[in-house]
Amino acid sequence: MTNSRFSYALLAPVAVVSLSACGINSIPAAEETVKAKWADVQNQYQRRADLVPNLVSVVKGYAKQEQDTLTRVTEARAKATSVQVSANDLQNPQKMAAFQSAQNELGQSLGRLLVSVEAYPNLKSNENFLALQSQLEGTENRIAVARRDYNEAVRDYNTRIRTFPEMIGAKLVHGAKPMTPFAATTAGANEAPKVDFGG
Fold first, then answer.
1. Rounded to an integer, what distance in angstroms lies between the CA atom of residue 152 and that of residue 40?
2. Which of 74, 122, 137, 169 has its CA 20 to 30 A from that of 4?
3. Residue 114: Cβ within 10 Å count
């Protein structure tokens, strides 16, 4: 009787270590990290979307003939903010592709707008425009960092659910599926728009 109690006492820590090594705790932790990093990506895209109306408003005052370009930027912003991907959609490549495509379209429209204002020297020296241009540039950098961090979290999660021993807990307990990393969906989408203000 004492022997069996002693055996159970020894087996309990071994069982706990075995379960933890099987991904019982690490898989949900990695999944939550991915979701948090995705929230950072969305936050940076939202920041860019919030800046666009201000930029459009400033450019409108100087460049009335750029109405077509301004309309395209406004429409691209509306599309980008209407395509939403929740943390539950991170395993759906089609939804991720639609989100990425809408964001790329907005980025390209902004690039075209910034290039088109070269013809307006007063606008290029306007403090509001310069401040918005600087904020957009900083936002693009933040988006790049957020996407990189998200992809790193996805890589870690996807590796955990496919490698032994964590794959046991991932499949049996959590029913884990791979998350979708951020990837460029159009040619040149991985490069920031080239803006030349003639100076």
1. 13
2. 169
3. 23
